[in-house]
## 1
Amino acid sequence: MAEMDTSGGGHKKGPGVKKGKKLSTRIDLTPMVDLGFLLITFFMYTTTLAKPKTMEINMPYKDPNDKVEPNKIKESVALTVLLSKNHRVYYYEGMASDPTKPPDLKATTFAAKNGIRDEIIAKKKMVDDMKRAGTLTAKDEMTVLIKPDTTSSYGDMVNMLDEMNINDIKVYAIIDITDVDQNFIKETEVANGVK
Amino acid sequence: MTAMCDVAFLLLTFFMLATKFKPPEPVVVSTPKSISDITVPHGDIVLLLTVDAKGRIYVAMDDRPTRQSVIEMVNSDKDLKLTKEEMNTFVADASEGIPFSALKAYLDATPDQQKVDEVNAPGIPADTAVLAPNNELAEWIKAARTTNGKIRICIKADGAASYPSVQKIIKTLEGYKIFKFNLITDLKGIPVGTAAYDDAHKSDAKK
């Protein structure tokens, strides 16, 4: 393909004239093409893989001048999840709004099996059953309250938010952890011998 | 062969022109994974807040006119006494993790020294209260929002960063009544047998 006709038009040379050795002017293009394809592959990969994904998050509207914040969520639809250190997760049913009845705090992990996901699915099913039975109205939605404590990591929070998307939980909120909840964690840690 | 070569080089040219390389990042951040597949808003309207594993906060804006206006605003608000050259250095720079008190010295330094400073930077000081005097992050956000009302805030934090360091940012945003923002995550597959998995495959079946 990249050759030129260098035969010299075909005029005859005299007998004393030395014939110059004809060199081929064909260039081997294979390495260039190889390089070209290598670069194409590189650019194709970088263009598609460099696009990071994002998670949109809506925090509940809060106004410091607005003191009206009634607790509209029913105890029976709520699941409180506490995030603690070393990716540990604690959860209990309800919101622990009744101080005389301390909640039954259980520990779990983010594992795919027997982790927090199974608990969320079970709770969701329970709420659906209660809706069908008529104990809850159709308006009631399962609500997850996420309370990351000060020792938890950002990755845990994102993991938890992701679980909400995975399990199609419509109502959830990230809430500041209370001293009461901190104590629950401490008590459970002591009870389980966790340092 | 010639035709294929032509096509190959055409593609190469296209990809080379279409690629936009990532701006240099001051710190390495490994973002947590999520199943969310929304793409990040267009670069020009993003205020990117990077949080590394140690909880240091960096601010970055892609758009040069925005950076210009932001630094002018911060300069006059905080009385930093920056010169025109120092502000130009800021505009050319990709991201900032230097407190106001050290900003002038940082912008005066040589590019090599700046790289060292950036890595050792303490990060932008932040606080859970917007109006706290040491909440410099609030100042940056205010300047960016005043410049461009449509600016979107993206938080790119390391999965190992402690929650309180991210909480500071969230609280500051809430203080400005910004309740909607983006968290940058890596994509992961949807676990089989969950509500999201069923949902994704239901819409596939419809197609």
## 2
Amino acid sequence: MSEALRQNKYLQFALLLVVFVLLCMLITPTESNWFWRLPPLIQQLPFIINDSVDYLMFEWWPIEVYDPEIEDYEEKPLVREITRSTSGLILFMIEFVREILLGGVKTIVTFMGWDWATENKWARWPALPWTVVAGGAAILGYALGGWRLSLFVGATFVYIAVFGQWEPSMETLSFVLVAAPAAVLLGLLFGVWAFRNRTVEAILNPILNIMQIVPHFSYLIPVMVFFGIGDHAGAIATIIFATPPMVRLTLLGLKQVPPEVGEAGLMSGCNSWQLLVRVLLPTARRDILIGVNQVIMSCLAMVVIASLIGAKGLGNDLLIALNRLRIGLALEIGVCIVLIAIMLDRLSLAWANKQTDYFADLSFVQRNKYSLMFGGVFVAGIVLAWIGSFIFREGFNYLYLIPHNKGITTENFWQAGVDWIWDTFFYTLKGFNEWLIVEVLVPVKTAYLAMPVAATFVLAMGIGFIIGGIRSALIIGGLLLFIALTEWWDRALITAYLVTVSVVISTFLGVVVGTICAQHPVSSRFILTVCDTFQTFPSFIYLIPVMMLFGVTDTSVLIAIVIYATVPATRYTVEGLLSVPPSLHEAGSMSGVNRLQRWLFIELPMSFPHMALGVNQTVVFALSMVIIGAMIGTDDLGQLILGALSEKNGVGNGLTLGICVAFIGLAIDQVLRTWANQRKSQLGLA
Amino acid sequence: MVALGTGGYNQNNDMTAEAEITTAQQPVIRCESVYKIFGDNAESMLEEADGVVDADKFHQAGCIVGVNDASFEVHQGELLIIMGLSGSGKSTLLRCISRLTDATAGKIFIEGDDILQMNSKQLIELRRSKMGMVFQSFALLPHKTVLENIAFPLQVKGVSTRDSIQRAKEMVDLVSLSGRENYFPRQLSGGQQQRVGIARSLAIEPDIWFLDEPFSALDPLIRKEMQDEFLRLQDVLGKTILFVTHDFDEALRLADRIAIMKDGVIEQLDTPANIVLNPATEYVRKFTEEVPREKVLKIKSVMDPFDPAEDFSDFRVPQDAIIETVAESVLNAGKPVRVVDDAGEVVGALHASHIVHVLFGGHADHAAEKSS
């Protein structure tokens, strides 16, 4: 019996389940029973965090700083000075880009001071007419990637202007144009550093692992504490969120450079800087470009999240539109965000792939044709704006700047659509909604809340033990223990319930859709493109159509999470199935398998490890949607985090809550990753 | 008729190399007891071993012996081939000499300077002015065109874009790639890519040319073509060459001298003819067993002393011609032929029977040996 148990993992799981059920039945749900709920022993943690952060910010390590206002040296805490100057620098850069696009006075103020600017009213940077910006961008697109890119870029700007989203879009653009390059540079820096130095790599690796699992909103609170509120805080949170994948991909790319290429560089007489910049990084550029793409996508995905801590622009508007249930407006803003994301991605890609022609013997005009073209557009735009000031004597000069929400809008059309759906399908939707809540969600939620803490630990650690041995069991136990000792165990269970339900549905959908699409090269390419597109959309975009149908309910949250989280499940299924080597297919065919058998016995087992990583991603995606769900109204950890953002002393709470969400993710990650790695090495894939 | 022999002569101009060995001229490359041992405690173990390295013993201690006590010299204009099977340490030895890896112990002199003592600045200067290297996997930069790849060593040196591209164009012509200047490496065949690699390594006009299995990744047909091309280039350029290969035929075909390596040790270092005729170890003998002797041996090694009393044919052969290249003519001559040296002086006589023996006798003996 014991020998059989040791050999057979299914038997082990069955036994674990029996123990779990027994524990659930035997433990009585009373407040004082420690097996039912652990006492909140680290209840004080948030306060301790608050105090230590206060100490760090306002007392620790005072330094002498010269203050020009009082013309004397003053003692100021080091950390605060660092964060202040960082904030100042980033804010200056954002304002600088913003004022080139939209005009303003802040950059001048930075250099000359408020008093001077107030006295000299003329010293105001004028906004560029939108035609100049759009034309300039189109020329840039042409210079980098030909007329097709030029057309796309131009059309994007025209759309933005025509739909009256110019100002918020330019605000968002200025924010992204600072955050994205910063994240790319930081990512390159750390990636190269880790590549050069093994110790650095060993230190960075676990940090990156954790950062990739921690949901993006977790950064908001610490950033808010150290950097305050505003565009710079949003940019910093975005940079922190967007840098890890860049680091990872830089490192990966550099490691994959064939050693002979590096040697060829050395033998060509490169010094270490030339070797890095002219040989290694360009050779690794495939992965690095994927990293840049990820950075741009992450930046735009953070647009709404960043608006929670004061970033101006489209994100903020979208949030307001959603809160007011103005679906059509939200849709138009959402399209703006997506267009900007795709445009920046294409431009950066085209830039990286640009070639030089050494043979051409160019005249002055040819050599400077882009500058000349821009000059032309610049003059033409200004002339147009000037003419516009005569045409539109009253009201707004549409040829200069189209004010916010004064463009054309399709909102009424969408609103009518929503109304029509409501009128036509009201009972169907309502019926489905109620059925889902009453028959599925509530019972699952109740079941989760009815789990004694001891049973949960046995189950989770047991799974960890069976799959990854004592190490995994202890890691999972440690992560859960932290959550159990806070006062939010019940809230965490609700988060876990939402995540479980959505992950199960997402995985099912993803595997089914992925499998079907992987049957044919055309359909698999199609579905991968769809996945790319969906991943481009910031997560909250999914709320728009869902709220159209189900209003503000748990169903909406669930469906939004499912749509978002199905993407990785599908992608990894398709990629896993496609990675099965053709020789295996042929071997299968020659063994006489039919289609179903091939799928069951060859493709699925071979791609399972890859799919498990997909599920892992699904969990991460689902967890990162928790805060989005909170905007609609849930009663889990996300809701508390949202609350903590607006509290004066929310740091401790927010940080602890963020850690709780992250730990749920890390626990699941531990199990899935361990399993996938084991399977991979067994199958000889790793 | 003399033209017949010139092919063989050109291929093997070790005449000059040998002449230089005898003069006291400074060797271009000199290695003195070079060791390369991989592993954490390689240096301390090597110190304890006091120069006598037992690969097995080191392996048990977690060290891998790459190069074991290599000492040799390469002279101006000489083509030395390092031959060995995979894992024999031949590429490691090459990388020690180009200092892509640091030797664990020993001394390596390039034109009299100990490169192990050089700091990175001096090393870069040396590579920029004197060294070129060709790699097995071509190692071209994927983001640069043919022209940019070739110009690269010049550009890192600080040559202006205009001049470096101009020079790169000349190199493109030299390796017969005209018309493909703006191709990317991925758009070229393997042979073409290696031509780019060769052009790049020659762009700075190096004195010393390292080639690490340059033709191993190519198809047999292309390989033959590239070897011919290589010989043509070497004929024009006359570089000092260290060439690594695992292909014994290639080594015989190209080399002035061959160093055969096994487990990091140089088993024998000699001219192709001597290696075939007098293998120093059992290991070397196994390699040479199957080698057709007429393809390796020169007339010199089978000629008899000249006896004016004999009746000679009018045909003369140079003493450095490979037997295979003149065999047919000699056999058809019907009478013994005169062997002449560079200056045209008669130095020996060649009898058809000797050639027949080389062509068929050796193998017959060998077969008889095997069957007994």
